[in-house]
Amino acid sequence: MEAQAIFDTLKGKFGDAVVELQGEGFSPAFVVVAPAAVKEVSRFLKEDPNLSFDVLMCLSGVDYKEKFAVAYHLHSLKQHHVIGLKAMLPRETPSLPTVDDVWPGANFHEREAFDLFGIVFEGSKDLRRILLPEDWEGHPLRKDYKYPDFYHGIKV
Amino acid sequence: MTTRTDALPTQEMTINMGPQHPSTHGVLRVILTTDGEVVTRAVPDMGYLHRGLEKIGERVTYAQYMPFTDRLDYLAAMNCNCAWAWAVEKLAKIEVPERAEYLRVIVCELNRISSHLIAFGSYTADMGAFTPFLYAIREREQVNDLFEMICGNRLTYNYARVGGVSGDAPKGFLEKTKEFLDYFEPKLDEYNNLISYNKIFVHRLANVAVIPAEDAVAYGLTGPNLRGSGVPFDLRKDEPYSVYPKFDFKVCVGTGERGTLGDCFDRYMVRINEMRESIKIVRQAVAQIPDGPVLAKVPRVFKPPVGETYFRSECPRGETGIYLISDGSVNPYRLKIRTGSFVSMNIFEKITRGLMIADIVAVIGSFDIILPEIDR
Fold first, then answer.
1. Chain B partners of A21 at a C-beta cutoff of 8 Å?
2. Which contiguous run of DSSP H or E holds residue A55?
3. Contact (Cβ atoms closer than 8 angstroms) between residue B208 and residue B362
4. CA distance A38 to chain B (A)
5. Which of B66, B69, B166, B198 is packed most tightly, with the most Cβ within 10 A?
6. Residue B220: which of A28, A55, A84 has the nearest Cβ?
7. Which domains can be identified in chain A, with CATH numbers?
8. Which CATH superfamily is domain B49-344 in?
9. Could you give the CA distance from residue B298 to residue B294 in angstroms, rounded to a whole number?
10. How do residues B254-292 score in pLDDT, each as one tens digit?
11. Which residues on chain A are in Cβ contact (under 8 Å) with B345?
């Protein structure tokens, strides 16, 4: 299915929760959805037989300066098509529902986005730091991150 | 006489496996909760090698990032080099000369052979057979010699460039490559006779840590770990890039030949068979390689257009996906690298429940993980 057709299907099903289609300059194209609707849209994308996006290839946090975003790259082994899903989050309270019950493989990616961006995935079965030490301060991939001078007295 | 066994106290014990452990293939720490010899829970703890490669990427130019991709997976540095080059070229829509693409495919497939050799060798060493490891290293040495010939380096190659490769193959390289393939191809049968179908080895792997196909897909496994579960998905075939469509090769999948489909033995066997397919690809590439330039004209101050792209390539440890966001400046705005080993670790806790401690080693080896790729 083409990105436009997928967008139209989602728009017809979820209405205003589906915000826009980012097509020009984006490969694959992104369907931007409201953060609160991410779980329902994901479940529909996975379970609808015409879409059946059974693989979550990648889940990334992004800092767009005025907003955060979570980008999902999806692939369907059955239908052989790809699509991106994106949710824009406010900087002050970056949180959205988890999708680890839709694609169990999401868990590590979500932990990484939590670790490096401080994005909270509500309802996650296991949301801890994954790459950095548990007592690390701050989230390094944020654009306004200040590099620390010391960690436990060790110069970094 | 009464037995006292029912009076013996049993309680769960927590053991650290790693981060310094010879069979965790690097600095992986696994927190084991055990009931006697049986593992009730195995939680992987990663991050010991985290260097912030994604953050570094935001501060260097696209060309300067190339040596960092070597450090992503040092056993398959050519594949990571080329993945980065392909991703940037997809973002900036750069045409690459055909000879450069052929050279990339040749070095990528040679690197896949040498990476799978390490997987094979270290796995057999983990299982208690040391000799095959020496055989694997002996063969890998010849691939390293070839790479030294073409780019001067033996581990971190820094060979690909945005727009092509750093230099043409020197005189005699293609002949040497052919010689190596002729020498190496019969060795695979030797390995199979020596260890693959050895009864003890098979007993250690067959029916251990079975991953059903639907679990493998749900957890997003890729590469040999996915194909070991019988899912015939290979990016070189299913989402072809570069000049891969021109070559004839088959996608190797697990068959459950010694146990259950998706067990450790299947994942091991997929790698052995893939080396044979890589030999086939390199032979065809060496025969068909055209003449011509090896580097496209790319401006010195290189600024790709504003946009976002996600490029997937088939590395020896699964899909290496590069999500690149460009704001039109000389540095990437954001880059995210999704690696096969990182995703494989996600299913680790699920499939190791109820195994023996010795089987944990078999599972880690069958995933062929590499830690710099997990921790980035």
1. none
2. strand A55-63
3. yes
4. 18
5. B69
6. A55
7. 3-155 (3.30.460.80)
8. Cytochrome-c3 Hydrogenase, chain B (1.10.645.10)
9. 12
10. 888 888 888 999 999 999 999 999 999 999 999 999 988
11. 108
Tokens at residue A102, please?
């839709």
Choose among B46, B307, B325: nearest Cβ to A130.
Answer: B46
Structure token digits, residue B162: 């945005």
The answer to whether the CB of B364 falls within 8 A of the CB of B25 is yes
Query: What's the predicted TM-score (pTM) here?
Result: 0.89
For chain B, positions 80-119, list CB contacts with chain A under 8 A: 90
Domain ranges of chain B: 49-344
With 0-12 CB in 10 A as exposed, 13-18 as middle and 19+ as buried, what is B313?
Answer: buried
Q: Kind and range of the H or E element at B43?
A: strand B38-45
In this predicted model, what pLDDT tens digit does every residue of B135-178 receive, in sequence order?
A: 999 999 999 999 999 999 988 899 999 989 998 889 999 999 99
Amino acid at B209: A
- Closest partner residue to B323 (CB to CB) among A71, A77, A130 is A71
Query: Is there a contact between B289 and B102 (Cβ–Cβ < 8 Å)?
Result: yes
Q: Which two tokens stand for residue B246?
A: 């021109």
- CA-nearest of A125, A5, A25, A26 to A71 is A26
Nearest CA in chain B to A27: B309
